[in-house]
Amino acid sequence: MKRWFIFALVLAYGTGLAQSQPKWSGKFEQLDQLLPTPNSYRSSSGAPGPSYWQQQADYDISVTLNDETQTITGSETITYHNQAPEPLHYLWLQLDQNIEAKGNMTQATKPTTLRDSIPAKYLASALGETGYKGGYQIHSVKDVQGKALPTLINYTMMRIDLPRPLNTGEKFTFSIDWSYNILDRMVGGNNDRGGMEYFPADKNYIYTIAQWFPRMCVFDDYEGWQNKQFLDDGEFTLTFGNYKVRITVPSDHIVGATGWLQNPDQVLTKEQIERFKLAQQTFDKQVWIVTAAEALKKEKERSAKTSTWIFHADNVRDFAFASSRKFIWDAQAVKIGNRTVLAQSLYSKEAAPLWPKESTKAVKNALEVYSQRTIEYPYPTAWSVNWVGGGMEYPMISFNGRRPKPDGTYDQRTLERMVAVIIHEVGHNFFPMIINSDERQSAWMDEGLNSFMETETIKERYPGFDVTANTPKGVTGFMKGDKSIRRPIMASADNQGDDYGNNGYDKPAAALSLLRETVMGPELFDKAFKEYSQRWAFKHPKAADFFRTMEDASAVDLDWFWRGWFFGTDHVDVTVEEVKWYKVKGTTVDPEKKSVKVTQGDLSVSAGQQATATDFSKGPTEITVLNTPETAYRDFRARVDDNAIRTQLEGKHLYEVTLRNTGGLVTPVILEWTFKDGTKEIEKLPAEIWRMDELMVKKVFLKNKEVVNLVIDPKEETGDVNTRDNVFPKRATESKFDRIRKGNN
Q: Which DSSP helix (H) or strand (E) runs through 524?
């Protein structure tokens, strides 16, 4: 009925309900031309295709950590399985430690500046003059017969020429002997994701060892060898495989690592073994395997002996470990589906009392929530290891920052950041350690998706914590920044410049939050997100696979969303340009004209002009509702009841709202109506409201009650960067606007 009324208005008088000439720049155009063509490896639905394949690399490693010289010495045997439908004539390996070698590409290409004063540490780091001699010493590369293989090192990449082509279905086994000096993370370097921390008070170290062995590059259907140089921001693209690792350290060290400990009886005391077994059966609290008192005692004693810890890990893409005599060790069992997973934490006395209270609990919370929303965690354990700084992730183990003050006190921000870091890094087990995206090219596919899930976990398990950072509201400052220097999310990690943190983490997380809460709704989003996770677990997804799966599993056309949020740099800014108020005053019909009077408020706020009225104080003014003209019926024989329509409209209020897309990014529109009796109503318009005109839309709303206030995006859910122009009546003063916003929130 309402549609006929609107049609009559447009037909008879052209009152402005009809859209202006469409202004279209392709924001709703499909993404087909920007995405790779589907094929038998990757389907049009976003799922792995029937011919999907991927490589495998298995590792057998022996490594010694020298606590006196702070060096790593290792020997590894790699068995590389070629599943590609083509022969390989050479292999590429990553030599990540070479990012610290003299003359490295990162140092050579990193912009630096000087000023008249600068702290010595920062100057030394900028000049690469820290005194640290980094980079691998490659001692040998041999085949199984012990014959040297031809190699060529290109910065952080090493090519190995094969004695004959490696055909489909074949495997090749070779060995590498190598060593390097461990980086002091306090001094810093280009790649301080792994290294050591020195404690002068007790003259001990905590070692967090990562990117420590030559690792196979990925060879896939998408681009062949992913041998893009490691420049720091672009993290790691790695191949799944099985690991057997023997780690030799001083006998008084405790080691945490990727995989499951194979020989606890050889490296733990009888009491520690009993506690370790108890922890695996204790679901309601932590069990301390190494107590604070035991760790403090070991700090003061140095064993002259060494022990070898043996870990096995199946179907992982990497391996990392931590080692120190300072470690306190606690653990707790977690039920995931029908399996038991052990959540474990390692930390020194400097992290107490915060870490004993919160670390293992955060690991447990992350495992449970992520398992519900993606896939069930498949590995036997997950470690959280304390270090200085932010966080870094590896399969089954993560290194996480934040400590209390020296006196043991800490504030709420320290607590929240510590919990967030642990959840984030443990969450990386899912993205990208299992759902194995290419971090070097698409940082957002691991950092962004994981930041979104981090926030979802905190919202569910830590009510009261601040979760603004990864929401649309949290990215408005970044979104409205200088577009001449902005890069889109889709830019590769090393080409993000100053946008890396926002485009890798915050903006994609905010986009997914908007997608779940406003665009798709939680039920549809959760099903599609879980479908993506299950499709690509233990595989190598690309951006197109994510985009296509989210649409395929939800029946929601999201091309406009990916185009705007991921491929563009526009921001959300919707302006309430104009509001007109109409009201039917009665239904007395002229027998001849059969019309009724309706009133319209003089509330026009034209672009670039001073409004004649900024509120509803003048009341409505008059228009006429006509009978439906015969020409509207075409060849239909039936007729609508015009008088019935008039009767239906009696006493109702109609509001014609004009919205302007000031920011350029098309967006859903959330309207909050406040009525004269004090009640409120939320109304949501899909982003497709802009599909006919991407700059301005007009829409009429029928209300049973008189409206006194209209607010767009009242809870700041869409990322609107300027909420001051989202209110009608127009604000008279800033304080009045602030009161309105406060009342809505």
A: helix 522-536
Q: Count Cβ atoms below 10 Å from residue 610 Cβ, excluding itself.
A: 7
Helix (H) or strand (E) holding 44: none
User: What is the spatial order of strands in the sheet that 391-394 belongs to?
Assistant: 287-290, 328-336, 339-347, 381-386, 397-400, 391-394
CA distance 273 to 401: 28
What residue type is 566 in one-letter code? F
What is the rounded distance in angstroms from the CA atom of residue 21 to the CA atom of residue 44?
Answer: 35
Which amino acid would we find at residue 612? T
Cis link prior to 432 (omega < 30° from 0)? yes
For domain 201-212+267-306+315-434, the question of CATH label 3.30.2010.30 is answered with yes
- The sheet that has 137-143: what strands, in order across it? 137-143, 171-181, 71-81, 56-66, 241-250, 306-316, 260-261
**Cα gap 102→108, rounded to integer Å:** 10
Q: Between 12 and 582, whose confidence is greater?
A: 582
Percentage, residues of the chain above pLDDT 90: 79
Running DSSP on this structure, what letter comes out for residue 308?
E
Predicted confidence band of residue 609 (pLDDT cuts 50, 70, 90): very low
CA dihedral 126, 127, 129, 134 (to 10 degrees): 70
What pTM value is reported for the model?
0.91
pLDDT at 622: 67
Q: Cβ(711)–Cβ(671) under 8 Å?
A: yes
- Give pLDDT tens digits for 454-477: 999 999 999 999 999 999 999 999
**Range list for CATH 3.30.2010.30 in the chain:** 201-212+267-306+315-434
Residue 142 has pLDDT above 60, yes or no: yes
Mark out the alpha helices in 131-284 (DSSP H runs). 264-267, 270-279
Q: Do residues 524 and 515 touch, judged by C-beta distance below 8 A?
A: no
Separation of alpha carbons 692 and 689, rounded Å? 7
Cα–Cα distances in angstroms (integers) from residue 323 to residues 198, 329, 486, in the given order: 13, 12, 41
DSSP 550-575: HHHTTT---HHHIIIIIS---BB-EE
DSSP string for residues in 642-703: HHHHHHHHTT-EEEEEEEEE-SB----EEEEEEETTS-EEEEEE-GGGGSS-SSEEEEEEEE
- What angle is formed at CA 260 by the lines to CA 254 and CA 261, rounded to 5 degrees? 45
Give the residue with greater pLDDT, 213 vs 744: 213
Find, among 4, 5, 3, the residue nearest to 598 by Cα.
5
Interatomic CA distance for residues 373 and 264, integer angstroms: 34
Determine which helix (DSSP H) or strand (DSSP E) holds 429, and give its type and residue range. none
CB of 520 within 8 A of CB of 554?
yes
Q: Which pLDDT score is estimated for 286?
A: 97
